[in-house]
Amino acid sequence: MINPMDAKPKVMTPAQTAASPDIDSSELHPTTTMAKLPKRLTALMLIYAAASISGLLSANSVSELSSMLCMLTLLMVVAVFGRQKAALYMLRGYSLLQLAFYSCLPAIMYDPENLVAGPTTVDFGLFQAVVSDWVIFSVLIFIGAAQVWISFNRKVKAWFKPRQSMNIMS
Questions:
Q1: Does 90 reside within a domain?
Q2: Directed axis angle between helix 39-58 and helix 65-81, to 10°?
Q3: Is the pLDDT of residue 2 over 70?
Q4: Which pTM does this prediction carry?
Q5: 11 lies in a domain?
Q6: Does pLDDT of 92 surpass 90?
Q7: How does pLDDT run across 138-155, given as a tens digit for each residue?
Q8: Pick from 63, 76, 59: which is nearest to 147 by CA?
């Protein structure tokens, strides 16, 4: 018969621990710290999910490249919440590619033959504003830099499981 008093963890000195080889060190410290989901990663994943869902709703067909990228982004969001290590690499690559694209956007958009002189009109529902191109490019580059900062953060890395798994859906 097992005595319930023996089930409690015993406090032992290091000398006693070394003297008794049958005691595992994990039995002495039963409380393990689990990594918490960082709030900034949650916010970024909600933004990615909303952008992907709106992209899927606005696509004409599922076979378009834009809808496929939206589906890949949704799979990445699921894998991030599943704590898969492959999702960390996908998140970092995704954010770096976006920052590189945003940084090259002024050079791509500057085409002397098709250059439209003047500011750009931005419509957000009832709100309409006239904004110059450098403000739009600056905001996009700032958003890309924020994504890179979030994806390379130490707390975000601690969220993912330490084992190496390239399967995003396991």
A1: yes
A2: 150
A3: no
A4: 0.67
A5: no
A6: yes
A7: 998 999 999 999 999 999
A8: 76
Range of the domain at 118: 36-159
The amino acid at residue 142 is: F
Per-residue pLDDT of 36-90, as tens digits, reads: 889 999 999 999 999 999 999 988 887 888 889 999 999 999 999 888 888 899 9
Q: Does 63 reside within a domain?
A: yes
Euclidean distance between CA atoms 27 and 30, whole angstroms: 6
In total, how many domains does the chain have? 1
Residue 95: is its pLDDT beyond 60?
Answer: yes
Q: Is residue 167 part of a domain?
A: no
Report the 3 state secondary structure along the chain.
Answer: CCCHHHHCCCCCCHHHHHHCCCCCHHHHCCCCCCCCCCHHHHHHHHHHHHHHHHHHHHCCCCCCHHHHHHHHHHHHHHHHHCCCHHHHHHHHHHHHHHHHHHHHHHHHHCCCCCCCCCCEEEEECCEEEEECHHHHHHHHHHHHHHHHHHHCCHHHHHHCCCCCCCCCCC
* Interaxial angle between packed helices 65-81 and 85-109, expressed in degrees from 0 to 180 and rounded to the nearest 10: 140
Six token digits for residue 80? 């991030």
Structure tokens at 33: 């710290």
Buried b (16+ CB within 10 A) or exposed e, 37-56: ebeebeebbeebbeebeebb
Q: Which residues pair with 131 in a beta bridge?
A: 120
